[in-house]
Amino acid sequence: MSGTSTGQSQRSESAGTANSPWRNWAGNVTSRPVREVRPASAEELAEAIGKAAEDGLRVKTVGTGHSFTSIAATDGVLVRPDLLTGIRRIDREAMTVTVESGTPLKRLNVALAREGLSLTNMGDIMEQTVAGATSTGTHGTGRDSASIAAQIRELELVTADGRLMTCSEKENPEVFAAARIGLGALGVVTAITFAVEPVFLLTAREEPMPFDRVTSEFDALHAENEHFEFYWFPHTDNCNTKRNNRSAGPAAPPGRISGWVEDELLSNGVFQLACSLGRAVPPVIPSLAKISSRALSARTYTDIPYKVFTSPRRVRFLEMEYALPREAAVAALREVKAMVERSPLKVSFPVEVRTAPADDIALSTASGRETAYIAVHLYKGTPHRAYFTAVERIMTAHGGRPHWGKVHTRDAAYFSEVYPRFAEFTALRDRLDPGRLFANDYLRRVLGD
What we know:
The chain has 449 residues and is of the alpha+beta class. It has helices spanning 6-15, 42-54, 105-114, 130-135, 173-179, 211-216, 218-224, 256-280, 285-295, 305-309, 329-342, 385-397, 412-418, 422-432, 441-447, and strands at 22-23, 30-31, 35-37, 59-61, 77-79, 87-91, 96-100, 117-118, 152-158, 164-168, 188-195, 197-198, 201-210, 227-232, 238-247, 299-303, 317-325, 351-356, 371-379, 401-402. An 8-stranded antiparallel beta sheet has the order 16-13-15-14-18-19-17-20, sandwiched between helices.
């Protein structure tokens, strides 16, 4: 576990007092903190929180900025967890790993694989820090296995009064029930203990499929596969499906050249060019969509989990994602398709559909219900309001819950209706942060004051 002296931490703080702006990954959120701190321990973090409170400044932690909302933005003190990284311990008897909160998922996945271990499920991007990913409800797709936060067995956080609190099902269980997806509203997470299992193999089967077939067979495809997802290409009737299931092996990863062609040349390089052209000349987008939707061919490969679940995403975009009751997903997606077809919208990015089982986390998008996710994207720099507003209208009509880290316009009044345990979360926030030390404009909108 790395560490530095308090003096080094103070130098990092001083280096961040130039009032330089912070921007998120997509470039749609900017904030200008008064100062930045880079604590190397929970003790240094508590000291920084106390000093911020004395100075009348709010505190927010930022990971890699992969949220499309302003959930991490602050005009007060910005905490960067760069020095809170690494694995603290691996418990092979309990099958858990405890990791510092600023550790990027990609580093955790590689380190676990080296130890012959793996998370059960994960999202398709692994650039985020573990605390950033879990605090916003990052998820993959799964029939039986849920979000990354649902794999947490214990977490440690520094509260507004400087206390270091450990939370689990046995210790501070009421905090544990909420803080696994805490939105940065309850305190600053310093360490997370995840459940892990012996590393296993997944066989991925990617296959093009017509829209009508995917939607008519959606329930069966979900039931028959451990992890099922698909992408629909707007302006076409074409989808690309992906089925991931555990395999006895042997490992058979994509060939070096064929893998590069699919994952880098087509999915990133050529797609980047197509998106740039579409942004400059929107009328060509439907033609490009027809070409793009036919470019990816069927393939099957077998590898360890993080090499199957995750993909490089180098094309920058804005995203809105809504979680719906799983039984409403097909109807909602058909409504989105009909809306695009009758509108003048030109949409260059595919629409992604994934699933998750119900979980027991207060503000999880899958809290208490079997869930399907519908995610819409637009290339960075493309006007997004008309498309996202039209999609959001459809999603909210089905009782949708927006991803906490992705673009949406919902507020506390709406969330109090779609989350049965919303009041439980806000009451806990009142207890842990009565002075709203960890508040910002986004939290005021989604949680109230």
